[in-house]
Structure formats: structure tokens, C-alpha cells
Amino acid sequence: MFEVLYVGASGMRSQQLHIDTIAHNIANLNTVGFRSGRLSFAEVTAAAGLQGSQHGAGVVANVVPSSAAGELKQTREPMNVGIAGPGFMEVVRPDGSLAYTRAGQLSVTSEGLLAMEGGAPLSARIQVPSDMRELRIDPDGRVSVLAGAEQDSVEIGQIELVTFTNPGALAAVGDNLYSAPLEAGEPQAGTPGELGLGTLRQGFIEGSNIELTDELVTLLLAQRSFELNSRVIQAADQMLSITNGLFR
Amino acid sequence: MSEVLQSLAGAMQADVATLRTISQNIANSSVPAYRRQIALTPSFEQLLPTSAAQLSQPPSVRDVVAIDRTAGTLKSTGERLDLAIEGDGYFVLQSAQGPRLTRRGDFRVSAAGMLAAASGEPVLGSRGPIEIGTGIPTVLGDGTVQIGDSVIDQLQVVQAPDASLQYVGNAVYVALDTDLTRLEQPSVRQGFLEAGNVTPVQEIVQMMETMRHFETAQRLLLGYDELQQRAISELGRTDQ
User: Along the 240 residues of chain B, how does pLDDT read in single tens digits?
Assistant: First the structure.
């Protein structure tokens, strides 16, 4: 009956999501390969009946990951690998599904597979010898090792990179991993260095792409906007109370 | 006698409609390229009854809404697919019901690899939908879309007379007269987004004004009611 209340509530709800998203972004300032979330707002209208005229019915918002890459930082750690370009590395999650990541902190699983820090092995299934002395990852993704008493390095596998037509649709699933729903488009795999994929940089790691000042300015705006919407609800409530005062 | 009550009730209803447009503006102040809606109340001349027949009908309250077409400010986002038009013009979106115009430029690439609006409709270039694929597009000032060094297409930036544009929500318009003229020299900025043109001060002031008007109408109604009550009790006394 009194749409104003619902319109105001939808405004508060979407600004709440905005503030939550900013809090999540700031909390992940130091998370490797983290992509900040941005809010995409859309107006909702409802047909008012007569002559197809429309009136406002509030607003909806959803979170879209920003596409800007974080800065590559040198760590000189051989198990760190950064991606210079838009590609993602493909890993297998414990439930068998594929996930994608840019957080190149590598480790070796108990089965000897090259994996991400969280334990999800690379989908290329690269077996690392247990007596490995040195691991080398070339910019084009070739992985080679010096193992045991050998003097020459041996190639043990190839890391591929994957891109999507719509990386904005990738959904964060925790552990710095993203799953690819249908809207993201078909994953397109290729050798690092191919057009539009980027190259691998061993000994580097990608920082988060958070711009702290931007986040704080947006936080102020979101907070004030939240407040403004709550004022609308107060006004609507006052109007209802005045209306009720009509009958004594 | 009751037309006083009727017109006061009408005034109060108009205030509710005004508060609704204000709430919609405030809720949507973060929507890119959103245009402020203004609730219009009919003028006194329009409402003034000119004949006895009209007198018996209370003035009807219709919510007529106008759109404030002032452009919003451009803000830098640094996102590759955020585009803004400086000066006049609209981007053209393809929809099942024909072309749609918008200045909202937070575009993305759809799963099929086409440049699309946030709501999913493909954005039209001079040769139809623009295919980006997994490439990294550069958009020049005149709307030319390049991937690497090769030119893909040029964004359609059109103009239509304000009177022919009908607002359909979410910063999108339909041009009712189909003659869209392409701008000779559009000015498109990559990495920028046009903000909505809602100004909180304006909305809050209008909200205060509306609330006080609503309150006044209520007091008037109560006063009139009291007057009637007095009339009934005083005039109806038989003990004089």
C-alpha cells in the first residue's frame, strides 16, 4: 500500500550491500591476487497500469569483481608465480570441479602434485619429484626441476592460462578461487605468451587491486546514502502517522 | 459541501505521490546516468472548475512525472569497459522491441563475447553488435573500438529530440519517433562513468516541503471537520 517505505528499504538494502562489499575489500587489502568487488545498481520500475506509465519501485544492486590487475611484487620466492596479463590458472577443487585463480602461491601436495597454497592441485597435474632441489617456471609456463644428483634440469610439465569473455561473471568461492558460471563464457585455454593471456613471472606475486583511498571515499558516500534512505522511511512513517491523526 | 474534503484529500494524495518520486530518486542516486524524476502537480488553472458539472467532480490526482535531463558529472573509474559520453548523445542498445537509448556506460562483455550493457542488451556499433571476445578493447574519443591495433567497429552515438524520448527505467529511453541522427563528432571517454544527477539537498528540501504541505492539509481537514461539527451541534439546538 505505501510504496515509499519499500522504495526506501530497497535503497537501504543496496547501500548495506555496498558497505559490506567495501568492508570485504578493505579486509582483503593484503590478500594475494584479490579482486575488489564493485557494485552495479539498477533501477526497478513497475507498470502503474494506465497508458503503460511506470513508476519507481526501488533499486537493486549486485557485486561485480573489478577487472583491474593488482601490482606484481617481487618476493624472490621460487614457489611464487605472478601473471602479467589477464589470464587465470586452472585448479581442481576437492569436489572435482574446476576453479580459477590468480593467487600464484604454489605448494606441493602429499601426492607430489603442484598445487595452490590452499591445497587445490593445478588441473595440468604436474608431478614434482620428491628429491627436487630447484623448481623453474619459464614465462611461457614450462615447469622444469633439478632433482637428486642430476646436473641438467628436466621438464616436468606445462602450466596453461585460461581467459573468459566475461571475467566479471566469475564468482568468488573462497581461498582466492573463482568458479566460472555459464555467463562468464567458455574458458579459453592457451600457452602463456599467446595473445591476450599474459606471461608467468616466477618469484613475483600479485597484490590485491584495492585502492584504499577510493574505498574510503566510496564508504563515506555509501554511508551517507544509507542515512538518506533511512530519512525517507522516517518521512513516510511520519506521513502515515499524520494520516492516522485525521480521525479523532 | 464535501468538495472541500475531497480537494484536501486530493492534495494529500498528491503529496504521497511526490514523496514516492523523491524516495525513488534517493534510492537510485547510485545508478549511473540516472535522471532525477520530478513529480508534477497540475496547475491551479487546470484544476479550477469552469462549469457546474465539473464542480461536482473532485480534482483528480494523477502522478505525472517529468525527467530532469541535466547531465550528471563524469567520474573516473579506471575500468576499461566503463564509457561516458561528454556532451550530447546516447549509446544505442539492441532489444527485442527495437533500439533503446542510454547514457549509462558501465558495459561488460557477454558470455557470447559481445559488448553489452549491465542489463545484458548488446551495444550497437555502426555494423551491429560489437564483438570483443577475450580481447582488451581500447575506445578512442570518437567511439572507435580497437583491439590491439586493429579497428573493430565504431560505437553508435545518436541524438534524438527530447520530446520523442520516453523513459523506460534504469537510465534507458525509447525513441518514439524513429529518426535517430548519428552524431558527427561524438566524444566518448573510456574509464569514466556518468553519475546520476540526483542532488541530496534538492531532494531533502523537497521532502521537507512535501511533509509540511501534507501536515497543513491535515490541519485544514481537521479544522473543516470541527467547523462542521460545530455547525451541526450549534444550529441543531432546539432549546432556544
Answer: 577 888 888 888 888 888 988 999 999 999 999 999 888 776 777 667 666 666 555 555 555 678 888 888 998 888 888 999 998 899 999 988 888 999 999 998 888 889 999 888 999 998 889 988 878 889 999 989 998 888 889 999 998 888 888 888 888 888 887 678 888 888 999 999 999 999 999 999 999 999 999 999 999 999 999 998 999 888 878 876
Q: How far is CA B97 from CA A69, B121, B143, B174, B175, in A?
A: 38, 11, 25, 9, 11
Query: How sure is the predictor about A226, in pLDDT bands with cuts at 50, 70 and 90?
Result: very high
Q: Which three-class secondary structure state does DSSP give residue A3?
A: helix
pLDDT digits (tens, 9 = 90+) for A107-118: 888 888 888 888
* Beta carbons of B112 and A165 less than 8 Å apart: yes
Average pLDDT estimate for A3-30: 92
Cα within 13 Å of Cα(B6), Cβ side: 11
Nearest CB partner across the interface for B20, out of A15, A40, A55: A55
- Among candidates A2, A57, A235 on the partner chain, residue whose Cβ is nearest the Cβ of B207: A235
Q: Are A218 and A22 in contact (CB under 8 A)?
A: yes
Domain chopping of chain B, boundaries = 3-68+201-239, 74-194
Does B11 touch chain A if contact means CB atoms closer than 8 Å?
Answer: no
What contacts B234, CB < 8 A, 6 or more positions away?
Answer: none
Q: Does B34 touch chain A (CB under 8 A)?
A: yes
Residue in chain B lying closest to A87 (CA) = B134
Other CB atoms within 10 Å distance of the CB of residue B149: 6
Query: Chain B residues with CB inside 8 Å of A11's CB?
Result: 23, 26-28
Beta strands in chain A (DSSP E): 37-47, 54-65, 72-74, 81-84, 88-92, 98-101, 106-108, 114-116, 132-137, 142-147, 154-158, 161-163, 171-174, 177-179, 188-190, 199-202, 204-206
Secondary structure (H, E, C), chain B: CCHHHHHHHHHHHHHHHHHHHHHHHHHCCCCCCCCCEEEECCCHHHHCCCCHHHHCCCCCCCCEEEECCCCCCEEECCCCCEEEECCCCEEEEEECCEEEEECCCECEECCCCEEECCCCCEEEECCEECECCCCCEEECCCCEEEECCEEEEEECEEECCHHHEEEEECCEEEECCCCCEECCCCCEEECEEECCCCCHHHHHHHHHHHHHHHHHHHHHHHHHHHHHHHHHHHHCCCCC
**CA separation for the pair B60, A197 (Å, rounded):** 63
Q: What is the pTM of this model?
A: 0.83
Size of interface A-B (CB pairs under 8 A): 156
